[in-house]
Amino acid sequence: MKYTHALCVICIVQISFINNGFSSDYGVTGLIDIPTARMSTDGVLTTTAAIQSRTNSYSITYQATPWLEGAFRYTGFNDFYYWDRNYEAKLRLWPEQSYIPQVAVGIRDLVGTGIFGSEYVVATKRISNLDLTIGMGWGRLAGDGDFKNPMTILSQKFKNRTQVQGGMGTTGVFQPGQWFSGEKAGLFGGLQYKFRNLPLALIVEYNPDQYDWDREFGFKSRNREVPEPNSPLSAALKWSPRPDLIVTLSNQHDQEWGIEVSAKLDTKSLPTKPSPRLFKSSLDFTQADLPSGINRNSWYDTLLFDVERSGILLLEATIDEAKYMATLVMGNTDYALWRDAVAVLANLADLHLPSIVNRFEIVIEEEGHRPHAIQMRRPSLNFGRIPQLMELDIKINPVKQPKFVQYKTNFVQNKVIFDVNLANRVQLFDPNDPLRYQLYVNIGLGLMLSNSWLLSGMYGYDIVNNFDESKRVSNSVLQRVRSDVLKYLTQGESGLDSLFIQKRGSFRGDIHYRVYGGILETMYSGVGGEVLYQPFRSRLALGLSANYLKQRYYDKSFKHLEYQTATAFASAYWATPFYNFDVAVHAGQYLARDVGATLEIRRTFDNGWMVGVWATKTDVSAEDFGEGSFDKGFFFKIPLNGLFGNNSRASYINRMRPIQRDGGQYLEDFSGSIWWQMRG
User: Which of 50, 321, 360, 543 is deepest in the core (most CB within 10 A)?
Assistant: First the structure.
């Protein structure tokens, strides 16, 4: 028997809610199940696990800007075995003011099956230790509805809403025709009371959701009765043992108990700067103490010796006595921030360079590319100057081809360098088991050849994995360019991941190139190249990339399958002035010979964190693509600088897809990658 609830809403409105960025069971900032108008702090990444008798739900939520919150959820139903993937976005319309509540609008199940489909406008106001929330919802958040849908005043099209009944809706498709539609809309609300001097908060919420889909699908798929909610009221106690961790115990609908754990990570926070370490310059060494080949009377030799012990590289150096200037070409091996690396080189050069030099021009080389040069006054000549004048004296210039190079470092060639470390592979969102994993030893090699050619390779030796437990078999109607990945993870649990030769470089200072050939990655061998046109100090750049590829055999040996293909893309990049968001568009032909475009949006922070999303649409129909309808996912680059108390450029990079299909697939590290690699 369904309840009526108009009077309950009036009671709730009089005493509603306080939110300090707490997550709901749905991942977005909210109470228990319902959203509020509150937002997390800008740049905060939240992971949430909510366990109850009805569902198990796991979500990742990111505060993309101070006014935009996005979430991805993976929810499993316990009454019948089914896992659902869906997204939510919430936009703050205006912040709270003295007599005006904070207001936000959101869409739940923005891209998904529509099982959790609902839209809402919600307002939240703080009164002392209380935060009061009331919202108007459509879809599931409307329940049985309290009044006629006000959107029908604008158009009668808003009256019709397709109900997801007895099964799934269309998977992974935007359905804007559904948004804010339905014959009726309903009210929801709640309160949060924050105890003074205690890390506790009490929550009461009014949630009109009748769980109609859960009950109908559960009955049809398993012939089991899934109970309807006893009451629209739920209550919870939130405990925050530390600022970045929240544990919630809830009693929902007077029917079931639930527990939620959410952890927050501030992706904008800067790591603690390592303490300065004692450093003995080569100037304090005797000739006998220096390695053979280092001449104590050569400023270049002694500078080179100090530089290489400091986590940077000195590639070239030239002194122009007529201009009283030294040009130094540098690489960076250890410093997450290039400005730190430049400062180290400038200070060391100040120690070693002849007194005739009063200006430095430091040319940056990143991944073999030289994007710009930094010109500055010799640091020791700045003694007594105010910082503002010192900053005005620093110029960023385009790179010019030198007429001659006075000194050039000859790095050791034909010497194999090995790198051994532990690595992992993780496969999420398998409906039969949400987590598949592998722990393996990653053996890397590098060999510097003549003319700036480099041979690189990776071999993975399996320690433990559970990919063989997966029973999923690809049902793709397209060429299986990616969906057979499980075969590579089982038949090739140990094997050669890559072995290729490449060369990188720059023409002038605005054209950068890369050519390569060999075993490029786990699934493909081939040859290819990329060129990037990056005008000096421009926010815009253009690129072209192309590959001719052959699919590798599943055991990751030197054998290949019959499938051959080519990919080619024209790319455009924009480093926007908005919150350090970067946008890239790649248009061309993908691995399955489908044609379309990929949109990437990433946000980069000063500490090296990079978080983003992408979506690809090609001429493959949603039906032929299969589950998910089109390719999409998340990108994370997590810096490891300062993790062990030292400087490091190491990072953990992960691309997360809700589901792996064959449409819109390409070699992610070999198609439109130069611009991202130079982003630092």
Answer: 50
Contact 416, 446 (CB under 8 A): yes
Q: H or E segment at 38?
A: none
**Residue 6, pLDDT above cutoff 50:** no
> Bigger pLDDT: 19 or 546?
546
Enclosing H/E stretch for 220: helix 212-222
Instruction: Give the tokens for residue 216.
Output: 């109908």
For residues 523 and 508, the answer to whether their CB atoms sit within 8 Å is: no
Inter-residue contact 53 to 259 (CB < 8 Å): no
Q: How far apart are CA 547 and CA 560, in angstroms?
A: 17
Contacts of 433 (CB under 8 A, 6+ apart): 466, 469, 470
User: What are the phi and psi torsion angles at 158 (to 5°)?
Assistant: -75, -5
Which pLDDT belongs to residue 417? 86
Cα–Cα–Cα angle for 334, 43, 17, nearest 5°?
A: 150
Give the separation between CA 628 and CA 630, rounded to whole angstroms: 6
Beta strands 359-364 and 373-377 are antiparallel
Give the total residue count for the chain.
680
pLDDT digits over 422-464, tens only?
888 888 776 666 678 899 999 999 998 888 899 999 999 999 9
Average pLDDT on 344-362 reads: 95
User: Strand runs (DSSP E) across 66-117, as ranges?
Assistant: 68-77, 82-94, 102-112
**Average pLDDT, stretch 540-568?**
97
Alpha helices in 227-356 (DSSP H): 299-308, 338-352
Q: Alpha-carbon distance 261 to 70, whole Å?
A: 18
Question: How far is it, in rounded angstroms, from Cα 444 to Cα 426?
Answer: 20
> Residue 168's pLDDT is what?
52
Give the span between the Cα atoms of 409 and 529, in whole angstroms. 27
Query: pLDDT tens, 7-32?
Result: 333 233 332 333 356 899 999 999 99
d(CA 484, CA 280): 55
Contact 624, 477 (CB under 8 A): yes
Q: 275: which residues sit within 8 A by CB, 6+ positions away? A: none
Which of 372, 303, 654, 364 minimizes the C-alpha distance to 535?
372
Question: What average pLDDT does the segment 496-501 reach?
Answer: 96
| Amino acid residing at 11 | C
SS3 label, residue 16: coil
Euclidean distance between CA atoms 655 and 662, whole angstroms: 16
Measured between alpha carbons, how far is 316 from 312 in angstroms, rounded to an integer? 13
Q: Which segments of 541-630 does DSSP mark as H helices, in order?
A: 622-625
Q: In the prediction, which pLDDT does 219 show?
A: 60
Question: Is 293's pLDDT higher than 90?
Answer: no
